[in-house]
From TrEMBL:
InterPro entries: HAD-like_sf, HAD-SF_hydro_IG_5-nucl, HAD_sf. GO terms for molecular function: 5'-nucleotidase activity; metal ion binding. Belongs to the 5'(3')-deoxyribonucleotidase family. This is 5'-nucleotidase domain-containing protein 1. The keyword Hydrolase applies. It comes from the Eukaryota. Signal peptide: none annotated. It comes from Chironomus riparius. Keywords: Acetylation, Hydrolase, Magnesium, Metal-binding.
């Protein structure tokens, strides 16, 4: 058995040893087959011990993220729109129109969720779980292994990404926030392409790679101009205005089975919604996707929650008067069916205890952002999570061409690179019970359905559902 594993891993190393670390679509396919072979070889080991199982019926209360979890977007249309709004802002700031206004179609293969921006060097990075740099580009130009070593040392390590892997919250608002940014979801993913194109334009204008770049503050300002809640009611954001004027272009309606499932969960359990969106934007998106009675599907709604800090800090919950935040509210004064903003998980847990009449209610949280919704609640407050990762539909056996924009031949698989797990696959495996491409998959099953789960102590365990995207269906 061991010799079989050695053979597979030797082949994997042979396939992926190359000066340029990028994976072609062919190499992604080869790696997928190698992963499947490893799974097949280890099947006897897996069968010796029945896999750990997980069921929604095990929990007293189930929480949800809103965007890209309950509300599903037409990701292609959304990303194109976001990039166009951001690039217009940056051109107005004086950055290269020639580079930024290139058709996004020419750069779409460069896009991938989870890229890390190295502000000063002008680089974009993909890293291993231990911080080793797997793939890197300078602007949009991919670096060879030797070029990565020249930038980051023989071990392809950087103290910043090492620290990031030890505690990813330090890059949120902590000590690393001035050095790196991770493009974690479909709202900030287009910023990576804008960043790369600006670096390309500067290098061309200046005649080569610069010692230091300082463009991120302007890109961040562009993101704020799109997403700041202050601009939703005033009409000051081109991003918000497009969604207001044509929601059907960007937002999908929830399937009736999902709506029935959400109602059933609320009837049998307690349910809550935690979203970073303010109440007005949440009402637009959820109102379109779910319906005007969207609030009736949850026992509690928390808007503008400022995750991941919601799970680690002690901000007060605030009352709402329409869309305006008013005064702080104590947890004992919160009501079943209420809508509040900001807050913290400690008091949320106390509220759940009061409505379930349980001292220690068992809570599950379901969301798509691997730091905000999966890593932080699982690591810092020890609640179970379900990861919603649409990339499962862009790769492997679940491939759906609608999600082509999430598939990058330039960066390779979201889950694996050059025979190694990516940081994101490791977070999924370590900090979620299961991983699904959308909650529609959960809604197909009864509440007591038993799912096989990830087990951090067993590398052969598989919590991907409806099946491992890298293993052919029998």
């Amino acid at each position: 058995m061991r010799s079989s594993f050695i053979f597979v891993n030797l082949v994997a190393r042979k396939v992926f040893s190359c000066n340029n670390i990028r994976q072609s679509s062919k190499s992604i396919h080869i790696f997928t087959q190698l992963r499947a072979t490893q799974k097949f070889i280890s099947k006897s080991k897996t069968m010796e011990n029945s896999p750990k199982s997980f069921s929604l019926s095990d929990y007293d209360c189930i929480g949800f993220d809103l965007d890209n979890t309950i509300v599903k977007y037409n990701v292609k249309e959304m990303i194109y729109h976001e990039y166009n709004v951001l690039s217009d802002y940056l051109v107005d700031k004086g950055y290269s129109k020639e580079f930024l206004e290139k058709p996004i179609e020419e750069g779409v293969d460069f896009l991938q969720k989870g890229l890390i921006l190295d502000f000063e060097r002008g680089n974009l990075l993909r890293i291993c779980p231990d911080g080793t740099i797997q793939i890197a580009s300078h602007g949009s130009k991919f670096l060879s292994k030797d070029e990565i070593i020249k930038c980051y040392g023989e071990k392809r390590r950087w103290e910043v990404t090492d620290e990031y892997c030890r505690d990813m919250l330090v890059a949120w608002n902590g000590t690393l926030a001035d050095s790196i940014r991770t493009c974690l979801d479909y709202f900030d993913m287009p910023a990576a392409l804008a960043f790369a194109r600006i670096i390309d334009s500067i290098d061309l204008e200046k005649g080569g790679t610069q010692e230091k770049y300082n463009i991120w503050p302007d890109i961040l300002a562009g993101l704020m101009a799109m997403f700041s809640r202050d601009y939703f009611p005033t009409g000051g954001s081109k991003y918000f205005e497009a969604l207001k004027n044509n929601p059907s272009k960007f937002i999908y309606k929830c399937d009736q089975k999902v709506l029935d499932w959400l109602r059933m969960l609320k009837d049998k359990k307690k349910s809550f919604l935690i979203t970073g969106s303010h109440i007005d934007f949440a009402s637009l998106t959820a109102g379109y996707a779910i319906g005007p009675n969207w609030r009736d599907y949850f026992d509690l709604i928390i808007c503008y929650a400022k995750k991941p800090g919601f799970f680690t800090l002690k901000r007060d919950f605030l009352k709402l008067d329409g869309i305006v935040e008013t005064e702080a509210i104590k947890v004992e004064d919160m009501v079943d069916g209420g809508v509040y903003t900001q807050g913290n998980f400690t008091e949320l847990r106390n509220f759940i205890s009061s409505i379930t009449k349980l001292d220690d209610p068992k809570i599950l949280y379901i969301g798509d952002n691997l730091i905000q919704d999966v890593f932080t609640p699982n690591k810092h407050i020890k609640i179970d999570t379900v990861a919603v990762i649409e990339e499962m539909l862009a790769e492997g056996v679940d491939y759906n061409e609608v999600y082509d924009i999430l598939r990058s031949n330039s960066w390779g698989s979201y889950f694996h690179t050059n025979g190694e797990d990516t940081l994101w696959e490791r977070i999924i495996r370590k900090h979620s019970k299961i991983c699904v491409p959308c909650i529609d998959e959960l809604a197909k099953n009864p509440i007591d359905y038993k799912y096989s789960t990830f087990d951090p102590t067993d590398i052969t365990s598989c919590g991907y559902y409806p099946h491992n995207p890298f293993e052919p269906i029998a």
